[in-house]
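fyi for ur records
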Amino acid sequence: MSRFRAASSGMTLIELVVAVSIASLLLTGLFGAYVSLEKSRRENRERQYAEMQAWGIQLQIARDLQSLAVHNSSGDFRATKALRFLGKNANGIASEHYSTADRTLVLSFASRNSELWPATDSLCSRCSQIEGVQKIRYELTGPDLNQNCRLIRTECPYAFLPDAGHGTETLYSKKIRSFSLSFFDASGIEWESWDSLCAKEKCTALLPQCLRLSFSLGLSNEKVLEFSYLVELPNYDVAEMVRE
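which gave:
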């Protein structure tokens, strides 16, 4: 009897295996929950950052357009046809191909909303009537291996060309998956492109009433966030005339 009680008072091998298995399951569950929670936190932070970045892009374009300066009577507001960089064909290959050295102009105009003036305006020897007026261009480069494009804002004094070494570039995003613009005139008619130099051939106004800015940003988990904003432009009478 004494030997039986002594033997039964300890933990058997089966009980030890069961205890270790239960502890292992608990630790695995806790680790899995921790990993899932951290992944969710990272995704939420990335999503919030993308939303802030999208709002910043929209806000900068809106500020530039609100300070629009029309050059002479011909105007200086240009934008390309609506672009979709990731329209994929049946083989899953992007239908638009650009090397990283290429640039696609999506928006070009003159504005008094400058991040540089009056520092860069000292380079300008033109008359004081164009002081502070900047040529602003929004361009896309790419895509890279992850199918992301870069949105770049270039600003230079009005008297110089952006490609003459006088422009200052600002990178607004490295993860543009798609980017498109559409324009609306005073009658509510939608246009895929707008060029004030030939506005009389299209409609009576040099400037569109507003534009719709639509783009998407890629995330690390291969998801895409889409954004769309409506940006109003000043009336032609309000937009400042710039004469050389």
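The chain has one domain: 43-242. thats all i got for now
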